[in-house]
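Case study 2.
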Amino acid sequence: MPRVTVQVYELQSVAEAAICIEAGVDNIGSVLLDEAHAFDADVRAAQREIRAAGRTACLIPLFSDVELICRAIDFHDPHIVHFCESLADENGLRSNLAVCLRLQAEIRRRCPQIKLMRAIPVAQVGSGHLVPSVQVAAHFAPISDFFIADTYLVKQGGDAAQPVGGFVGITGKQCCWDTVREVVQAHAVPLVLAGGLDAENVAAGMRATGAWGADTCTRTNKLAADGTRVRFAKDRALVRQFVQSCRAIGG
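Prediction:
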């Protein structure tokens, strides 16, 4: 296999970004949690640190105001803007798909210097057939530079089951790799595999899907005393192990 592009989220400060830079991560991502945090100074500092290190700075805006997103892009200056709305579920394509298509197309028009990454919702293992992931990808392929296949939890309360309502990701759960492979084979857009990846399973996931890159968030976060993962706090050793496993693929 060719070299795997390694992507890690969610780095919200210079100190946290430095963990990924030191470990050799390629794409390092931050999140704008809502409109009130569109101009978060710590995120801006992290994005600048990532750029200065020669890595790819990624940014997720968890809001949909076009004007505000454009202003946030000017403020943070990322390389990639990543959209991750829940566009489909076990009931089919969702009504917000057309709105998200228009939003992404407008960002592409206004900010042509920015690469765009679109999250493709993929159901968890054993339920991949329930979400029309390939259809979602077909709609967004013409206006996306990258896809990221991430886990959408079905049969568990819809958006109420997702860690962030209305969005896919940070579940810590593996998505259906067979479905991801279908997306990879159907579209030429480079795809990053996400969803419950860690150093132990990333090689199997990459070989099963043929993905271009591998993403980790939840499973490289620190563990709290009660065994839960601490959001926005990376475990340095786990990040290093993930990068090492990715680098060993195809070697």
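The chain has one domain: 5-248.
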